[in-house]
Design brief:
By secondary structure, the chain is mainly α. The protein is built from one helix and no strands. The chain is rod-shaped.
């Protein structure tokens, strides 16, 4: 192999290595961008779920209070029925 051929092969190898490095860098940037976007979407979904969970907890608390009020009213009616039956 002549010196000129070896030099030419060396240049092509360096160029190929450079192309592979640039391609890998671009692919890494694209992956990082898409990953960041997915993380952002997941964060928004988690925030919406937390808000909905808070609303459900408020409704449950409110529902428990309403159930207690209804229970008191039912007990009051049962007491009235018991008094009426005793007459």
């Amino acid at each position: 192999m002549t010196l000129e051929t070896a030099s030419s092969i060396d240049r092509w190898l360096r160029f190929a290595q450079f192309c592979v490095a640039v391609t890998a860098l671009v692919a890494a940037l694209i992956y990082a961008g898409s990953r960041s976007e997915r993380d952002e979407q997941q964060t928004k979904s988690l925030e919406r779920m937390a808000v909905e969970l808070g609303k459900i907890q408020e409704m449950a608390t409110s529902g428990s209070a309403q159930i207690q009020v209804i229970g008191e009213r039912v007990r009051g009616l049962e007491d009235r029925v018991t008094r009426i039956e005793k007459r």
